[in-house]
Amino acid sequence: MVVLVQSVSGSRLLAYADGVRAVYADVFGILPWSERPERADASLRRLGDDVDRPGLTAALGRDGDVVVSWATAWTTPSPFPTGR
User: Fold this and answer.
1) What value does the mean pLDDT of the chain take?
2) For 41-55, what is the mean pLDDT?
3) Is pLDDT at 81 greater than 80 in this prediction?
4) Is 66 within 8 Å of 50 (Cβ atoms)?
């Protein structure tokens, strides 16, 4: 396996939605989390909203056209939000 990891925009990450969902289901569907498949669907829906958040940074790992990993992070605004 040769994995290419690249920084991607949120909209580009969503272009790989099926693979992103599959990775989530594979990782969190096993112990200790044992999440049901519906949680992977919900995560993908949240990600659809999150890609528009200011300060988004995303990375996508692929082996050819197959998504094998992904990550997202956001810049924390200053001052830190009190409602979180």
Assistant:
1) 91
2) 89
3) no
4) no
Query: Would the CA dihedral through 79, 55, 66, 20 be positive or negative?
Result: positive
pTM: 0.83
Report how far Cα 67 is from the mean position of its chain's Cα atoms.
11
Q: Which residue has the higher pLDDT, 81 or 65?
A: 65
Query: How far is CA 52 from each of CA 41, 45, 49, 58, 77, rounded to the nearest angstrom?
Result: 18, 13, 6, 12, 15
Residue 84 has pLDDT above 70, yes or no: no
Q: Give CA angle at 57 (55, 59), nearest 5°.
A: 170
